[in-house]
Every structure is written in structure tokens, then in C-alpha cells.
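Students often ask why inverse folding is considered easier than folding. One informal answer: many sequences map to the same fold, so there is more than one right answer. In these notes we will look at a single instance of the problem. The structure comes first.
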């Protein structure tokens, strides 16, 4: 079998394409394959399918193909251009690559799977492509996936901000589908406008289908929901309980810092030394190494221990099945917190009270933000691994590539 015939079979080129020349470079570990077609054929206009004669040929282009026996393999061809009476001079569709692709479809399909399965660094090494090429592949895959994405109704939306780089300006808003656990969109900024632009991108039917939005107590996002749903926006806001607990944790930490400073100054030593992280745990998650300290301090008259107990008791609020059960519990808790003489705790309790409507809505929808349950840490990993794409546009592509639940693969013929 001649090498041109061999490659004809290996590439699976459809009619009328044939392999005209194969060059093997053993030292450079690469194979170059030239693909050609007979003259005098008519080709379809890529816009309307009208068969036209060849107008001319574009200059030679190269596509990376799957390796042959570990030799990097490149396809070369001069794509014919037709002159359609309606659409003018157009390059015809090639069966092995998408327009503007640098890789053949088979290579892209394989590369996407490798990129999905491993880190960017490892994928580049395995595929022998540059960061820039990997980026190019991911961007094309996401564009393809988004174009194919069916209009789906999302009942529960999760919204959160995420730092994308240093500085106040470098924030993005991440929108999730809570039930599917997918990231729907990554939008620049963390303003009302950021979230409004997401709602505006939906169809009227999709907007109507949204029953609740889980979020932190963030004014910008609250206002975006109220503006989008002027009738019943307030009923759709569910403050994520993990975020609410985070605010309480910060209050406990503020009490600890203040008390620790005071004890060090007045008594020259503090039992709170080295306990910062202890107080961030919930009761059943306290690591064994803290147990001794925990039991000693819990029963002490330290303000920190009191603040922690108040925080821990708030957590029980979400264990109630109904709002009717939760309401009296909240009232007792609120009284306790606001009479604790612990300023940060009082302040946190008052913030919660001002947002009570969104705490109560939990008992209707019982959702927590998908972001707080796994997606968040996955995004952090992607961010940490992606030194090469640390800007907001690239970050969006990478997050949607891995977490968008999109159908990314090119259609191979
Ligand atoms: Zn045409």
C-alpha cells in the first residue's frame, strides 16, 4: 500500500478529497499530509448550498490532526472558494475541520476530552499543544456548546460573587442552576447591572420560570431581583444559609479578636491564643486536636464562648420543617443575641433581622446556593491552576468549559 493510500484510509477523507502527498520527518517526529481534490468539480456555497464552480483557492492552510504512531500529524490543503450569485466569494466547508479551526475535528474532539479529564498543564503536555492552542480549543468548544444549548427553564438560580484577580474591580458574578449544579453564566462585576444583564439574556418564559434566587445578603443582587420581578421579587429571594452563617462566624471572630487583645493587655496572657479556627467550626465538626481546648473554653465565662454558642444555636433555625416552627425559635434567638452585650453579635443579628423575608423564604423553597456546595471549590481550583488565563474573559470560558454542562464536542463526519 502506498503511503498516500494508507493516509487516505487513516484520515477517512470523504469524496472527493484525496491524499496527494505524504512527507515523513523521522527526526522531527512529524508527518505532513497534503490533501487535494480533482479539478472541474462544483462545490456548495456554505451559506445556501447552491452548487457553484471554483472561483479560486485560498492559500494553503495547516491543521493539526491526531498523531500517527506518536508522530505529530499535520494536514495541508488549499480550500476552494466559490462565487455564489447571492453570497459572493466564499470558502467552502471542509469535511475535516470547522471554519477557522487550527485542528481537525477528530483532534479537537480528542483534545476536549483530555482537557476535561486533567489539568491544563497536563493536557498541554499530553497533546503537545501550547497554552494558547489549548485556550483556542476551549473557547471554540464553549462557543459551540452555548450555540447548541437548548432553552431550558431554570427553577432555582444561585448567584454569588467571585474574586477574579486582585483589587476591587476584579470581581465576577457567577450564576448557577441549583438543581442541575451547573454554572449558567459568568458576568463581569458584582453590581446590580451584572445580575440584571443575566436576567435580560433570558427569554420571558425563562424569567417567569424562576421561582427563587439563592444569594448572600447583597444589596446589588437584591435590587436586581426586585427590579426584574417587580410583583413578587421579595418572595423569590432566599438568603443562602451558609452565607448567613458566615456573617455570624465573622461576628464570633470579631468578639474573639477583641477579647484576646484585651486579655493579653490586662493579664499578660490569653486562653484564646491559637484558637482562631476552633470557633469557626460547628459543634460536630471540631477536629480532635481542639477537643481539650474546646471543652475547657466552652464552659468558661469567655465572651468568645458565649458568641460561639449564639452562633451555633442560629444554625438550628434551618432544621425546622416549617416557618411556623422556626418563627418562635428565631424570636428567642434574636432576643438572646441582641441582649448578649456582644456588639458584633448584636450587629449581625440586626442585619439578619433586616433581611428576614429572605430567611423565611427558605422554608418555602429549601434551597442553598449550588455555589456553596462544591462548585465554589472547583472554581477555586480552576483559578489556581490557570495562571495562563487570568483575566475575566478567559476565566468565563474556563468555568463554562468545565462546569457549564455544555455539549462541547465538534460534530465529526
Ligand atoms: Zn450562496
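Output (designed amino acids):
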Amino acid at each position: 500500500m502506498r503511503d498516500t493510500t494508507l493516509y487516505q484510509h487513516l484520515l477517512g477523507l470523504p469524496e472527493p478529497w484525496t491524499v496527494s502527498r505524504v512527507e515523513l520527518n523521522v527526526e522531527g517526529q512529524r508527518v505532513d499530509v497534503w490533501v487535494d481534490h480533482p479539478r472541474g468539480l462544483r462545490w456548495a456555497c456554505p451559506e445556501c448550498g447552491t452548487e457553484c464552480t471554483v472561483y479560486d483557492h485560498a492559500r494553503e492552510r495547516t491543521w493539526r490532526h491526531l498523531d500517527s504512531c506518536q508522530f505529530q500529524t499535520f494536514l495541508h490543503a488549499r480550500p476552494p472558494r466559490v462565487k455564489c450569485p447571492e453570497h459572493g466569494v466564499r470558502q467552502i466547508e471542509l469535511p475535516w475541520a470547522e471554519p477557522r479551526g487550527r485542528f481537525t475535528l477528530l483532534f479537537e474532539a480528542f483534545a476536549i476530552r483530555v482537557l476535561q479529564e486533567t489539568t491544563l498543564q497536563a493536557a498541554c503536555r499530553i497533546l503537545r499543544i501550547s497554552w494558547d492552542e489549548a485556550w483556542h480549543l476551549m473557547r471554540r468548544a464553549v462557543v459551540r456548546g452555548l450555540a447548541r444549548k437548548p432553552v431550558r427553564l431554570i427553577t432555582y438560580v444561585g448567584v454569588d460573587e467571585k474574586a477574579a484577580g486582585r483589587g476591587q474591580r476584579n470581581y465576577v458574578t457567577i450564576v448557577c442552576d441549583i438543581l442541575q449544579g451547573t454554572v449558567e453564566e459568568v458576568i463581569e462585576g458584582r453590581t446590580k447591572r451584572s445580575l440584571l444583564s443575566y436576567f435580560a439574556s433570558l427569554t420571558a418564559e425563562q424569567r417567569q420560570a424562576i421561582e427563587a434566587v439563592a444569594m448572600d445578603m447583597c444589596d446589588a443582587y437584591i435590587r436586581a431581583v426586585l427590579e426584574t420581578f417587580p410583583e413578587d421579587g421579595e418572595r423569590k429571594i432566599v438568603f443562602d444559609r451558609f452565607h448567613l452563617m458566615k456573617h455570624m462566624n465573622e461576628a464570633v471572630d470579631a468578639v474573639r479578636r477583641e477579647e484576646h487583645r484585651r486579655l493579653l493587655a490586662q493579664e499578660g496572657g490569653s486562653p484564646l491564643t491559637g484558637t482562631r479556627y476552633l470557633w469557626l467550626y460547628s459543634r460536630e465538626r471540631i477536629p480532635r486536636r481542639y477537643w481539650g481546648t474546646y471543652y475547657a473554653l466552652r464552659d468558661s465565662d469567655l465572651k468568645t464562648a458565649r458568641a460561639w454558642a449564639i452562633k451555633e444555636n442560629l444554625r438550628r433555625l434551618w432544621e425546622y420543617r416549617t416557618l411556623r416552627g422556626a418563627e418562635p425559635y428565631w424570636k428567642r434567638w434574636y432576643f438572646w443575641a441582641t441582649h448578649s452585650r456582644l456588639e458584633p453579635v448584636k450587629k449581625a443579628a440586626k442585619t439578619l433581622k433586616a433581611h428576614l423575608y429572605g430567611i423565611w423564604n427558605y422554608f418555602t423553597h429549601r434551597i442553598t446556593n449550588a455555589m456553596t456546595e462544591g462548585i465554589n471549590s472547583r472554581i477555586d481550583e480552576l483559578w489556581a491552576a490557570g495562571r495562563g488565563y487570568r483575566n475575566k474573559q478567559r476565566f468565563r470560558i474556563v468555568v463554562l468549559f468545565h462546569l457549564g454542562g455544555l455539549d462541547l464536542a465538534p460534530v465529526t463526519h
